[in-house]
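Researcher: First entry.
Model:
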Amino acid sequence: MKDLQFVTADEAVKGIRSGDHIHLSSVASVPHILIEALCRRADAGEVEDLHFHHFHTEGPAPYSEERYKGIFFDQGFFVGPNVRANVNAGYADYLPVHLGESQKLYRSGAIRLGAALVQVSLPDGNGMVSLGTSVDCSLAAVETARLKVAVVNRNVPFAYGDLVSIDSFDYLVEDNTPLVTKDFAEPTPTEMLIGRNCAELVPDGACIQMGIGALPNALAAQLTSHKNLGVHTEMFADGILRLIKKGVVNGAAKEIDRGKVVASFLLGSDDVYNFIDHNPDVLMKDIKYTNDPWVISRLSNMMAINSATEVDLTGQISADSIGTRIFSGTGGQLDFVKGATMAEGGKSITAFASRTNKGQSKIVPLLNPGAGVVTPRADAHWIVTEYGAVDLYGRSLQERAKLLTSIAHPDDREMLERAAFERFGPHIHFVKL
């Protein structure tokens, strides 16, 4: 890298002005060295009123903390564990947006970026770099920001897909800190049952989208006997990687990007990051592409598999909040719900445990006051718990209440039946399914 002209992190962030909106590359690839430099400027009283935008981030998040009130204001597009308490305390905030449209906020000028702070790979022979594990809306940020700063990190994988010229950046900073990795707990017996119920809905040759965590890993573990699966998703982790290595995922049946695994951001083990490095079978793409319902709809047998915090008896799906408490974000759930249901043979699947860790039913008569509806009842199709799978498509409100009650925890069914009776009257008992 001796031909690259590097500056210090402190020099690179000097051009950030009070009032600027700042994009951070996200998830595993947060440019912490630049955030630390901005904190030093803030501590010196040089800047104020800086607004931060990003997907969920791993690692320290000082831009969300009370000590920087009036100086930093975090307005993330997705809320992760590192900022959740501060968001709900009011020191940081959540900006609701479908992840597929997050890039549009920048490109349309709805958010005018003063700076894009991203991590990139080493350049190839043509001077192109990869945004590695965080293409998402970072590509749009680099295109539109007034000041563009790249942390060149040899640990960022060179992933094919949407690349950026090294000459796009105003400043380059060298930092070879390893990317954040994440090991997810082994699935519980309940999660394995949910995974099995989901897997029964997935035909051979299907294309799948799912997130990360124990439940997606449980589903992946139940797909090992499937054949010719494809992947078109926001993100993937080690569960999908194991299916690729077993030959279950090969993309052979995909109508577009045949043979390719397509994603926009990643979080997992070093095995995942190493796998995508210089791998022509993986495309890391702009979130505008991965989450475009019209692109998704071109993939037959598209399986969109997402989760929920709670579902009411009419099929309204909350996934971003618990009452008024913001838990995560809208994410790309509705992007993929719409795309999958438009696809030939596609299915939208919402999977979750019937009860919370505290023993409360996630199938509820009414959503908690203040809860956000991420997927409207008219878009709710397959709902899956450890007790089974039901399809709400083409079903009336009374029919939905009975179907959802049937896959609730057995100890909660009487309560739900009583709530349905109170809402719909005695005729609820005579609906034949």
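Researcher: Second entry.
Model:
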Amino acid sequence: MKFEKTKYRLVNVADGHEFEDKGWTLSDPAGKTPSLVRAVYENRKFTPREDLDGIYRYAEWMPISRVLRKSCAPVTYKSKGLAQYLGLENLYITFSGWNPRIGAKMRTGSFKETEAYSVLARMDADEKRILVVQSAGNTARAFAQVCSDNRIPIVICVPEDNLHDLWFRRRLNKCVKLVAVPHGCDYFDAITLGEKLATDPRFMLEGGAKNIARRDGMGTTLLSCVEKMGRIPDAYFQAVGSGTGAIAAWENACRLGDDGRFGENKMRVYVAQNDPFTLMYDSWKADSRALVDLDPDEGRHKAEVVLASVLSNRKPPYSLAGGLYDVLKESGGDFFLASNNDIIYWLLQFRNREGYDLLPAACVAVAALSKAVREGVVKKDEYIMLNCTGGGTLGALSRGFVLKEPDLVLSPDLPAEEVVRAVSALF
């Protein structure tokens, strides 16, 4: 089937300036202040595509030019076990991971697949540049799998300490190249390495939160929930490392509010981090748009001790217009913390109540919801969406797996030209 490119324009969140997408536009070239840009779709109505499979069911609100193989959409269901335990009447769980029993078949076990299938489908099939993605683990696994399945060349930069997250059912296609930063380095260092590589015109940065395709792919979690719930939730819960998923959910809540068929957008966005890595939490509680100071060595140490290491981003899209600070302000939301002990507790409780395992980051979201209930932040009859962003990996791994070894290990302190020379030799 021939897919017709989605029709949309871009808007600068800071000043409302609308302009055309040049193909891989990440910011407004005329913008005067740091700001995200959003897609304004020609189809203003939420229209799931019955003729498309997987995540592309939501293609009308994704900035894509093609569809790729083997995608799966998030799955939403009304909770019974956890809802009863927390005393909630209308708790809906949106799960992105591996649990065939409920129809969830994301093979890498993480909602990062929603990003990969959207970002890579935004690329033209004849794109000559090589995509560069930086990751703390789950994003790397998702992009590597999707690129391997669809023969798309990519360079993925990850911390060497997170290589245990690079597991796959079978060996990847050689189009996937993995470049690690050495032991003791973190996600920020992987970002630095990728930025140096992208100084060469043969490579292109994926763009992270600034990429509308990444956000609108992640925003399909809310679309899944609203399809099941029939309305915009009163409250939304998610763990955050960069906050991009929560930003994406809010953007789609705004689109759904404009649609008008799913109620007003009164959704409060609640997010959480894994203590002691609390950069955005501390900034929010200080009512500061600017991120509070975090010494790099202290940040690396805190990233090492948290169980949800994917939540330890030292360069999140918090402060810029349309970023997480604005989302929390506009939605009337708040920030929570969860300890490593909380993660272990809710990992066990969730499995007992819902019947499957979650990744540590998703357990942080469950812990935040439980604290919100205990503190009276949410009412028992409110419609609540719990975004469980990954899980089922125990079942996925039980089927057998192989680890992807790095093709190179490079210091983030290397000059850009040396990074480019070393990585280019892989192709």
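Model: Note on the second entry: Residues 113 and 142 are 5 Å apart (CA to CA).
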